[in-house]
Amino acid sequence: MKTNASAKRMPLLSREAKDRTITYAMLAVIFAAVQLYVSSGKAGRSFTGLLVPTCVYILAAMSLNLVVGVSGELSLGAAGFMCLGAFTGSVFSILTKDVITATFVRFPLAILLGGVVAAVFGFLIGIPVLRLRGDYLAIVTLAFGEIIKSVMNNVYLTVDKNGAFVSMSTEAKAAHVFDMETKKDIIKGAQGITGTPRDSTFVICFIVVFIAMIIMLNFMDSKQGRAVMASRDNRIAAEAMGVNVTRAKMSAFVMSAFFGGVAGVLYSHNLATLQAVKFDYNLSILILVFVVLGGIGNIRGSIISATLLTILPELLRAHAGVQRLRQLRSHRLHGDGARLTAPAGAAHSVAHRRHKTVRHLLDEVCVLILLAHKAGVRDAPNSHDRASPSLSCMTLRRSWPQDASISPPRLRRTVAVMP
Q1: 61, 58, 78: which is closest to 283 by C-alpha?
Q2: Between the CA atoms of 372, 374, 380 and 384, what dihedral angle is there, to the nearest 10 degrees?
C-alpha cells in the first residue's frame, strides 16, 4: 500500500512561482500586442509617445513598492532619486556622445551610472532616515526630494579643455575664465539640460522593466526579502529572532533608490529638455498613487495601475477633443441661431453672443485693412509711397463712413465702390 505521504502529490509550482509566471506571461503578451500594433502602422504619434513614459512610471512604481509595500515605510522621495539618475545619465551621455558612439554601449553605461549614483545617495540618506518611523520618515524623504530639486535647479556645469567648472550662481560662472573655443554648457541652471541623446525606446525600456521585475520578485522571495517583510509585520519579533532590522530595511531602500535612478535615466533620454522642476513632490505623490492603487506589496498591481493611470487620461483627453471638433463641425454646418446642436440655456446664450461679437470684430478689422489699403493707394502717387508705412490716421478717418452703426456687409459694399 502506498503511504499517505506518497499519495499526496506535491504541486508542480508553488503559489509564489505561479504568481511570478502569471506576471511574466502578462508582460510578454502586452509587449507582443504593442509591437504588433505599432508595426501595423495603425498606432498614432500620441500612442507611441506614451510607451516610454508608461515604462518609466511602471519602473518607478515598482521601485517605490519595495519601500512602501515590502519594507512597510512611507517614503516620498521617489522624485529625488529620479532627478539624481536623470541628471547623472544625461551628463554622462552628453560628455561621452563623441567618444562612445555606439548607443548599445553608451546607454547601458548611463543607466548603470545613474542607478549607482541614486543608490549611493539612498544609502547616505537611509543611515539617519531609516531610524525614523511613520510620518517622520515621509517628511524627511519629502524634504530630501525638494532639496535635490532645488540644488539641481541652481547648478551650472560648464566644460572646456581645462576641465569642468561647477557653480551655484551665474555670477561665479561669469567670473570664471573659459576657453571659448572648447566651452560647452552642460547644465544651465533653471534651463536644465538640452541635447541629451534620444536613446530611450520602448524595446529598451521594456527590457529594463522586465529585468527589474525579475530582480525585485527574487529579492522578495530571498532570505533578505523575507527578513524585510518580517520586520514590517512585527519589528520586535523580528529583532528577537536575530534579524538586523535596520540592515534589512536599508537593503530594500537602496534597491528602491537604484531602480528609481534607472527610471530617471530612461525618462531623461526621452526628452529634448530636462529641467529639475519636473521632479517635484507632485511626481512623488503620483508614484505613490500608483503603488496604493495597484496594491501595497503587489508588483503586478503596480504595473497595471501605472499603465492605466498613464494611458487613461490621454485617451479621455483625446475623446474630449474629438467631441469638441464634432461640436464645432455641427455649428458650422447648421449655422447660428436655434439650429445649433449645443445644449440650450443661459451659458450657451452667453457663449453664442460672445461668438457673434468676436466674429463682428474680425469683420471690422478686415474692413479697416481694406479701407487703409484703398486710402493708401488713392493718396500715394507712386509705388514707393504706397509701400511707405506712414499712412496717416487722418486719411483713414476721411475714408471712414459717417454712419457709426453701419454693418460689416455694408462696409464691404462701401469699400467696393470707393474710388
Answers
A1: 78
A2: 70
Q: What is the residue-level pLDDT of the chain in tens, covering all 419 positions?
A: 445 554 455 556 677 778 888 889 989 999 999 999 998 888 888 889 999 999 999 999 999 999 999 998 889 999 999 999 999 999 999 999 989 988 899 999 999 999 999 999 999 999 988 888 778 888 999 999 999 999 999 999 998 888 888 888 888 887 787 877 888 889 998 899 988 999 999 999 999 999 999 999 999 989 999 999 999 888 899 989 888 888 999 999 999 999 999 999 999 999 988 999 999 999 999 999 999 999 998 999 999 999 999 988 887 877 666 666 667 666 655 554 444 444 444 444 544 454 455 455 555 555 555 555 555 444 444 444 444 433 444 444 444 444 444 444 444 444 444 44
Q: Which residues contact 196 (CB under 8 A, 6 or more apart)?
A: 90, 93, 94, 268, 269, 271, 272, 274
Quote the pTM value: 0.74
Query: Do 56 and 266 meet the contact criterion of CB atoms below 8 Å apart?
Result: yes
Beta bridge partners of 158: 165, 185
Q: How far apart are CA 130 and CA 285, in angstroms?
A: 20
- CA–CA gap between residue 91 and residue 100 (Å, rounded): 13
DSSP 280: S
C-alpha angle 217-222-226 in degrees, rounded to nearest 5:
100
Distance between CA atoms of residues 68 and 375, nearest Å: 74
Dist CA 76 CA 146 (whole Å): 10
155 CB neighbour count, 10 Å cutoff: 19
Residue position matching grid coordinates 504568481: 19
CA separation for the pair 418, 363 (Å, rounded): 18
Helices within 234-345 (DSSP H only): 235-240, 245-268, 281-294, 299-334
- The CA distance from 39 to 326, in Å, is 30
